[in-house]
Amino acid sequence: MNFDLLVYNIGQLILPRFTGNALKGEEMKQLAVRESAAFGVNDGKVAWIGSSTEAEGYNAKLKLDAEGKVVSPGLVDPHTHLVFGGSREHELALKQEGVPYLEILARGGGILSTVEATKNAALQDLVEKASFHLERMVSHGVTTMEAKSGYGLERETELKQLSVIHKLNEKYPISVVSTFLGPHAIPPAYKGKENEFLLEMLDVLEEIKEKKLADFADIFCETGVFTIDQSRVFLQKAKEKGFGLKIHADEIDPLGGAELASSLGAASADHLVAASDEGIRMLSESDTVAVLLPGTTFYLGKDQYARARKMIDEGAAVALATDFNPGSCVTENLQFIMSLAALKLKMTTEEIWNAVTVNAACAIGRGKEAGTLDVGRQADFVIWDVPNYKYIPYHYGVNHAKRVFVSGEMIWERIPFGEFQLSGAR
Ligand code: NIG
Ligand code: FE
User: Fold this and answer.
1) How far is CA 399 from CA 63, 171, 416, in A?
2) Which residue among 250, 317, 334, 393 has its CA within the 20 to 30 Å range from the CA of 356?
């Protein structure tokens, strides 16, 4: 056989299974790990998977020695607020004083301060800022991600954010799935007129549909933000317009977001820290993926994490994401989230790998394209500088990625120590 690229001498090749839907409950415990493996790539797609010994007999334009390291599919980050202006480091002191997240928002800070900064930023500046964060995500092994609007709360800025996401897809070979989160907070001028605001957001959504600027619609259903009834009406209308559904659900208070997401057939319900027993039961009986964001719980300094064990044990599909944003989770590092999932959510290593690959892809409607390495699939993968697949959640807070590939092309590589070059230095 002849390949464009042949990757051989892989210590462990991680092969999450795609069954047509996200893996649920017990299925999440299964993870195929092939030792001494190799695979071939032609035209950007996986053309063959086998043993490293077999690979010795095959030809390729480029042969890449994985040096006995771990190779996995590119990671998928299914919940990020990638596009925003400014930053909120001044809120750290408020957090230390114990001011709650929703209180900062109620005082006009939090999301609302990022809304101001995003309104004032030029499109090109937002592209550059988002690129900086996106590249850092990629350097940590992510090759598909989701990104939301939601720092505009009005037509022009929401469309500007979605245009930034569109431009990122043109600029980079990775996929950025786009979500409209117009109802992310109540603009001060609409206090008491939330329904009017939601109607306006639905008009914007109509325009987004025409311009094909988003695949999903999302809403922040929370005390002091949008009620469960308002969320139901908004999501129902978004569904009628043909959008996939997501919901910031039961993050702080158990308002019934998990129940709503499952009953509407949402692609995902996200956060779920306070999800009720009934909500978890309904999730496990639906195809809605529970997207858990332990980085946010950590960053908000909460003791209670989402009940991942109960969700998986009852048969739900769980995915993990960074929730990268300037207020409640300021990290691009999905590997750190994998460590939190092990330590705080008590997920097994196998469940964690499935949660950041195949299930994360399903949560953003990309199960057929991303999150697994099968013959015929796009060759998006990561070479990890670790001795085995259990090592990543264990050794936390650092970057273990060595090389990142999309469609068989290397898009990022860690520079080995001592090989730095200062271009233009005299
Ligand atoms: O998912 N919870 C609501 N929205 C974001 C936070 C956005 C922000 O604080 O800027 C989240 O945590
Ligand atoms: Fe979020």
Assistant:
1) 25, 24, 14
2) 250
Residue 146 Cβ inside 6 Å of ligand 1? The answer reads: no
DSSP 189: G
Higher pLDDT, 106 or 124: 124
Of ligand 1's listed atoms, the one at least distance from the Cα of 101 is: 9
150 lines ligand 1 (CB under 6 A): no
Over residues 230-241, the pLDDT tens digits come to 999 999 999 999
- Alpha helices in 121-227, H assignment, sequence order: 123-139, 155-171, 194-211
**pLDDT tens track for 277-314:** 999 999 999 999 999 999 999 999 999 999 999 999 99
State the distance from the centre of ligand 2 to the C-alpha of 296, rounded, in angstroms.
9
d(CA 359, CA 364): 9
Residue 300: how many other CB atoms lie within 10 Å: 16
**What are the extents of the domains in the chain?**
2-73+371-413, 76-364
pLDDT tens per residue across span 38-92 = 999 999 999 999 999 999 999 999 999 999 999 999 999 999 999 999 999 999 9
- Contacts of residue 80, defined as CB under 8 A and 6 or more positions apart, other chains included, come to 137, 145, 146, 147, 148, 321, 322, 323, 324, 325
Q: Which helix (H) or strand (E) holds 50?
A: strand 45-51
Check if CATH label 3.40.50.10860 holds for domain 2-73+371-413.
Answer: no
Please give the biggest Cα pair distance in the chain: 71
CA 147/CA 110 separation, integer angstroms: 19
- Pocket perturbation via mutation, ligand 1, pick of 184, 246, 252 by most ligand atoms within 8 A of CB: 184
Distance CA 293, CA 323 (A): 6
Indicate whether 119 pLDDT > 80.
Answer: yes
Shared fold status for 2-73+371-413 and 76-364: no
Torsion, Cα of 256, 262, 266, 272 (10° steps): 50
Distance CA 192, CA 369 (A): 43
Domain 76-364 bears CATH identifier 3.30.360.10:
no
- The single residue listed with the structure tokens 């959504």 is 205
**CA of residue 371 to ligand 1 center, whole Å:** 25
| Res. 222: pLDDT tops 80 | yes
What distance in angstroms lies between residue 103's CA and the mean position of ligand 1's atoms? 13
The stretch 320-325 carries a mean pLDDT of: 98
**From ligand 2's centre to the CA of 327, what distance in Å?**
10
